[in-house]
């Protein structure tokens, strides 16, 4: 089964595939980011692939390499029991990838986590907030140039209890710190 | 006259949705989670989940440690079943190294992993009863868990943070009287399982709170990345142990229980059945396993025995290099997955060919479950959140990394 999925992507999106390999039981394709949602949607909906589950989205920071980041999507099909890793490369200056939030429910939080930890933005994501860290956190801790012992500025105490998510977002937009998403 | 009295009251009835903060330290949200609920009367119409209160930077810490030093950190992911995390991580590194572990090691990993699963499921079932007022069921389940932990303590030396896995093997073999102790524990566990069934499964109060609440459909479960009991309760029989057997799961006979409705009751029943299946697996493993080595003899990974370390220069250098520089894992990346206590536990690891991991990403089932939990709450009553949040079995350490 090993090469079947790679061949599928190559057949339908030949121009987009930059690289592909099959190692240690993991099939991988590296694709252009522009048409990523389209490729993943095709993989999800085509009868031959049926990749109906998104196992994980993560990012790898290769500090001194250009392009610096690699966003990794791990897709799985429960019916066909096969797995494909789709990777896109992203440079530091143009750190964004189109979202696949509309394709899988799980993608919303996974993309938020990648933004939180690596600062890669997902274009079109409706609610790209931090998920594990707090909104006032400065920087993205899993980047290799973020020192493990780096300290964070003291967060100002809130004048009053924030009663809703909307209110909290308003508060954050009012005084964006360096790490938080600019409105 | 009467109408005039009631008129102002009618006008004053507050009918706007109400915002309710639940958590972060609500007694029913064991683990620290905050829900911002928009309520219409008793009904939840919108739920915003906020996690991360227990974030300790697992992935960042791992990048500063050697491959072996990561084991204690994995204990603290899902701290109710730390052995499963240990073995899941060990398996991932072994895949990248391309080494095979001895047969006995695989058997022991299967046994100890299932013991951990027993402790995970018993805790979840017991705590679920407790939150709905069934203190007795909780005490029985915790008695069962204590018995399991006694066994784990006997083998690993610790009850909770065991650090029992090693790359290419295990810390220790099973103790000689393990089978005997298991026979005793097994007998008591089956009694406890029966008692729990009697106490809960046909209990009117329990049924009313559990049946038809916190429902997920199979399509939604798959789309939101639900795995483990949460997905199986909807009828999708996806179990990594069955679909992609690792360790010795391919050689033992066990069933994968599935539910029909995807509600709390089905999740509870699936867990109850999995307790029986875990006991079955351990029985078969103990019957089939044979004596032998438990650690690989690959010199890149295995520490030489102490006699060699103290008496030969090669042994000493080898020991020194593995401890100080760490196991040298060839450059590359791999995604390895196992069945954890509450779903698919995956490790995506990247090595740059040195003794320290370049990157470790853990696909923690709890975090992914929390990403879709609003779908289970919305449309239900506020009171339904309590059983739903329990049967989802979110573990803070794993969710918040």
Helices and strands, with pairings:
The complex is a heterodimer of chains A (183) and B (401).
Chain A: H1 4-12, E1 17-23, E2 26-31, H2 36-45, E3 53-61, E4 69-76, E5 83-90, E6 96-98, H3 107-118, E7 121-123, H4 165-174
Parallel strand pairs in A: 2-5, 6-7
Antiparallel strand pairs in A: 1-2, 3-4, 4-5
Chain B: H1 2-12, E1 18-22, E2 34-40, E3 43-50, H2 58-64, H3 71-75, H4 82-97, H5 103-131, H6 135-156, E4 165-166, E5 169-170, H7 178-201, H8 204-210, H9 218-223, H10 228-232, H11 240-243, H12 264-288, H13 306-311, H14 313-324, E6 332-340, E7 343-351, E8 359-363, H15 365-371, H16 373-377, H17 385-392, H18 396-400
Antiparallel strand pairs in B: 1-2, 2-3, 4-5, 6-7, 7-8
Describe this structure in words.
With 183 residues, chain A is of the alpha/beta class. Chain A has a single domain, classed as 2-Layer Sandwich (Beta Polymerase, domain 2), CATH 3.30.460. Chain A contains 4 helices and 7 strands, in the order H-E-E-H-E-E-E-E-H-E-H. In chain A, the strands form 2 sheets. Chain A has a 5-stranded mixed beta sheet with strand order 1-2-5-4-3. In chain A, strands 6-7 form a two-stranded parallel sheet. In chain A, a hairpin with a 2-residue loop joins strand 1 and strand 2. Chain A starts with a helix and ends in a 9-residue tail after the last helix. The model of chain A has no long low-confidence stretch (mean pLDDT 81). Chain B is mainly alpha-helical and 401 residues long. Chain B has 2 domains: 31 residues, no CATH class; 343 residues, Cytochrome-c3 Hydrogenase, chain B, CATH 1.10.645.10. Helices cover 51% and strands 12% of the residues of chain B. A 3-stranded antiparallel beta sheet of chain B has the order 1-2-3. Chain B has a 3-stranded antiparallel beta sheet with strand order 6-7-8. In chain B, helix 4 packs antiparallel against helix 5, helix 5 packs antiparallel against helix 6 and helix 6 packs antiparallel against helix 7. The relative contact order of chain B is 0.18. The model of chain B has no long low-confidence stretch (mean pLDDT 87). Classes of the chains: A alpha/beta (183), B mainly alpha (401). At the A-B interface, strand 3 and helix 3 of A face helix 2, helix 9, strand 6, strand 7 and strand 8 of B.
């Amino acid at each position: 089964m090993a090469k079947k999925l790679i061949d599928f992507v190559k057949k339908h999106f030949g121009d987009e595939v930059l690289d592909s390999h099959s190692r240690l039981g993991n099939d991988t394709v590296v694709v252009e980011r522009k048409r990523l949602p389209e490729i993943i949607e095709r993989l999800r909906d085509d009868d031959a692939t049926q990749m109906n589950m998104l196992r994980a989205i993560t990012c790898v920071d290769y500090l001194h390499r250009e392009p610096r980041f690699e966003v990794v999507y791990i897709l799985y099909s429960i019916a066909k029991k096969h797995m494909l890793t789709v990777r896109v490369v992203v440079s530091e200056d143009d750190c964004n990838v189109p979202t696949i939030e509309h394709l899988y429910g799980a993608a919303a939080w996974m993309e938020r986590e990648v933004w939180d930890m690596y600062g890669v933005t997902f274009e079109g994501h409706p609610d790209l907030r931090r998920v594990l860290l707090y909104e006032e956190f400065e920087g993205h801790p899993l980047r290799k140039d973020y020192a493990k012992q780096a300290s964070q500025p003291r967060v100002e105490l809130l004048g009053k209890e924030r009663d809703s998510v909307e209110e909290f977002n308003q508060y954050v937009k009012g005084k964006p710190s360096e790490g938080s998403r600019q409105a | 006259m009467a109408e005039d009295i009631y008129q102002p009251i009618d006008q004053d009835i507050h009918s706007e949705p109400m915002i309710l903060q639940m958590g972060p330290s609500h007694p029913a949200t064991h683990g620290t989670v905050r829900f911002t609920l928009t309520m219409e009367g008793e009904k939840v119409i919108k739920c915003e989940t906020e996690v991360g209160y227990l974030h300790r930077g697992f992935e960042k810490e791992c990048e500063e440690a050697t491959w072996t030093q990561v084991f204690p950190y994995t204990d603290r992911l899902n701290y109710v079943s730390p052995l499963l995390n240990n073995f899941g991580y060990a398996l991932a590194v072994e895949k990248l190294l391309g080494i095979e572990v001895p047969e006995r090691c695989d058997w022991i990993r299967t046994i100890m992993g299932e013991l951990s699963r027993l402790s995970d499921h018993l805790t979840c079932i017991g705590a679920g009863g407790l939150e709905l007022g069934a203190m007795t069921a909780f005490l029985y389940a915790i008695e069962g868990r204590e018995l399991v932990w006694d066994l784990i303590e006997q083998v690993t030396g610790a009850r909770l943070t065991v650090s029992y896995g090693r790359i290419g093997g295990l810390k220790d073999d099973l103790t000689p009287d393990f089978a005997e102790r298991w026979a005793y524990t097994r007998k008591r566990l089956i009694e406890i399982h029966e008692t729990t069934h009697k106490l809960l499964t046909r209990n009117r109060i329990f049924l009313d709170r559990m049946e038809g609440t916190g429902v997920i459909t199979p399509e939604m479960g798959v789309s939101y990345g639900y795995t483990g009991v949460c997905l199986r309760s909807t009828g999708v029989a996806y179990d990594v142990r069955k679909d992609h057997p690792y360790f010795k799961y391919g050689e033992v006979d066990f069933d994968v229980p599935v539910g029909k409705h995807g509600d709390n009751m089905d999740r509870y029943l699936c867990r109850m059945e999995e307790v029986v299946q875990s006991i079955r697996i351990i029985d078969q493993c103990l019957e089939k396993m044979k004596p032998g080595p438990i650690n690989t003899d690959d010199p890149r990974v295995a520490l030489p025995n102490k006699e060699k370390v103290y008496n030969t220069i090669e042994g000493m250098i080898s020991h020194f290099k593995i401890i100080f520089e760490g196991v040298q894992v060839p450059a590359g990346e791999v995604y390895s997955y196992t069945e954890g206590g509450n779903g698919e536990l995956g490790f995506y690891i990247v090595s740059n060919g040195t003794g320290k991991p370049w990157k470790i990403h853990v696909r923690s089932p709890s975090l992914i479950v929390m990403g879709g939990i609003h779908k289970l709450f919305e449309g239900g009553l506020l009171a339904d959140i309590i059983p739903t949040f329990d049967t989802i079995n979110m573990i803070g350490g794993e969710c918040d990394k």
